[in-house]
């Protein structure tokens, strides 16, 4: 099995970033990941140029939505702008021909009923004009997070399944988040696939922190607290494209790719 391995890169020239790493898949933000402003296209050729150049060079693009999108929340001042921002990034990612838009699961307040968050996810999918796969990502921390624990992931996907457009919603598995979130990597592929039916993308990251720590702190492959063979097994068993969201520059990412390929 040949698994495509790439990295999260700067958005200014994703094509050059991919070539510098010898890969055919990259992920990046469109604009500020911590802001409510809509997508920005910093590529010199704009959205159309990026789409055309990626197609010409055979490079697959993935877009990571801003971190602050939280469509699950009961707070209207966050939920409504989050839905609007989700739509803007769906539109922006589709404009560059991206293969998927990765979105974090969000969270509720400490004592709020998770069922509200599940239903808010359903409403968000219903309200979105989905033009490319939306890949919901598991997260590492928060006791009332929507996608930290398996039962919550199941609640989100059960609710989404009732929405029109649900066939365009997939899953992105982050290995650091799974480990730090308290999900056994030995079984996580089977566990998640039983819930979602699919794993569309893997974020292969080592974790600086211990199992079930709740800490979202990535580190280079082989440098953290995740068993190396287990990390490789997750990637192998997922059989999906891989993005390393690990620190460093092109040379560091190539070292991560080599580390992973040796174990696959």
Structure commentary:
By secondary structure, the protein is α/β, with parallel strands linked by helices. It has one domain: TIM Barrel. It is built from 9 helices and 10 strands. Helix 4 packs across helix 5 (150-160) and helix 5 runs parallel beside helix 7. The longest helix is centred in the N-terminal third of the chain and has 20 residues, at 76-95. The model has no long low-confidence stretch (mean pLDDT 97).
Using brief descriptors, characterize the structure shown.
TIM Barrel; alpha/beta; 264 residues; eight-stranded parallel β-barrel
Order of helices and strands: EHEHEHEHEHEHHEEEHEH
Total DSSP helices: 9
| CATH structural fold name | TIM Barrel
SSE class: alpha/beta
Largest sheet: 8 strands, parallel, barrel
Average pLDDT score:
97
Radius of gyration, CA atoms, in whole angstroms: 17 Å
CATH C-level class: Alpha Beta
Instruction: Indicate the overall shape.
Output: globular
Would you identify the CATH H-level superfamily?
A: Divalent-metal-dependent TIM barrel enzymes
Summary of the model, kept short:
The chain has 264 residues and is an alpha/beta fold. Helices cover 40% and strands 14% of the residues. The protein has 9 helices and 10 strands.
